[in-house]
């Protein structure tokens, strides 16, 4: 029945600041219609997962967390350091890959993942 995700929609307090941050930090070019189309690449997958109400993987006050898959986490970390974006969680390795966290200007945690 489900073919894939049709979109992720978030409210923002300051459109210009958030668009600039996502463009500079994550290289996601936000169009004039305040969105962008990210086309999946071969081998890319989207995980849809629930966490219990009291799971502490990410802060309880944050209801949703974005996870972006990156090509190379080391290069991503170098880019973030170069532009002064602090890591909220240092590189962590697990059976699922390598992960770091950063925060957007409105305080939302974003997970960056290399499979």
From TrEMBL:
It comes from the Bacteria. Coiled coil: none annotated. PROSITE patterns: VOC. This is Glyoxalase.
